[in-house]
Amino acid sequence: MKRKRVILNVYNYRLFVIWGLTAVLLVGSIFIYKNKSSQRPKEIPGDNYDSMRLPDRTLRWDKKASQLNLLIMRREEEEKRASLAMDLDNYFSDALFVGDSITEGLSYYKWLKPENVYATIGISLTSLLQKIDDIVQASPKRIYILMGTNDLENRKSVTDYIDEYRSLLTDIKEALPNTSLTIQSVMPMGERGYRTHPNITKERTDEYNSALKDLAQELEVTYLDLSTLFVDPKAFESDGIHLVYDFYGKWLNYIRTTEENRSDEDEGEVSNSYGVGNSYCYGI
Fold first, then answer.
1. Measuring CA to CA, which residue among 132, 129, 130 is closest to residue 96?
2. Which of 22, 46, 54, 131 is buried most deeply by CB count within 10 Å?
3. Which residues lie below 8 Å from residue 238, measured CB to CB, with a gap of 6+?
């Protein structure tokens, strides 16, 4: 009887353990199922789980389309620049641009060929007068001169500046009587340029340009006013002096457009001096 009672107790113990483990497994399974269900996005009636991801796919495609449109716009802009550069290069193929490092940017940025640009960093009129032979040997049909920034920096007086400019133009006209001459106003600078170069002020620049305009009338050459062309702060490099790439193109295109407009109006002009925009021609 005692042996049977021991066997029964063992049997009940095992049964209890089995039922206990079963209960634990059942509760664990329910807990895991509920946890996974809570992490799954709620379904919208009439839709399934995959449909919930459609907006994300649409956003990705919209982003790719925007990037593609941006690339297309950049490509079109590059093609326009290349086309403009080619047109300007052809238009000024018989010309020579004379000046300092500002003018040098025309060839540096490949708007013009090197043979169409005669420019030296830091050059002033005093130095340029010693290099007239180089200009004459190039024998261009048109010469565009931009000088004055370094003369202002060197504190050259307006009188000395104009006297040297007069000598330069007179010598070129004698050596190249069939070459047209255009003198350009001293280019303005950005605010940083004026801050870092206190010798160059807007007032002194205006004095130079006013005297230049009178000199152009005296010697019967073309005067081109650039003062309104570069009022945009974005026109200048970080130094506030030299131009950025695009504005070299605008500079050349401004000259071309001015000359084309002047040619159209020349036939109906009676007096010996006139202006087109900010360009003035005397005795032509």
1. 132
2. 131
3. 192
Residue 31 is assigned to a structural domain of this protein: no
98, 144 contact by CB (below 8 A): yes
Q: Which two tokens stand for residue 143?
A: 């010469």
Residues 247 and 255: their CA atoms lie apart, in Å, by 12
Rounded Cα gap, residues 284 and 271, in angstroms: 10
Domain presence at residue 121: yes
Contact in structure between 119 and 97 (CB atoms under 8 Å): yes
H or E stretch at 182: strand 180-184
Evaluate whether residue 29 is within a structural domain.
Answer: no
69 residue type, one letter: N
d(CA 118, CA 137): 12
> Structure pTM?
0.69
State the residue range of the domain holding 151. 95-271+278-282
Domain count, the chain: 1
User: Is 110 part of a structural domain of the chain?
Assistant: yes
CATH code at position 137 = 3.40.50.1110
pLDDT in tens, 223-276: 999 988 888 889 999 999 999 999 999 999 999 999 999 877 665 553 333 333
Angle at which helix 245-266 crosses helix 101-108, to 10 degrees, equals: 100
User: Is the model's pLDDT at 170 over the cut of 80?
Assistant: yes
CA distance 50 to 57: 11
Rounded distance between C-alpha atoms, residue 267 and residue 269, angstroms: 6
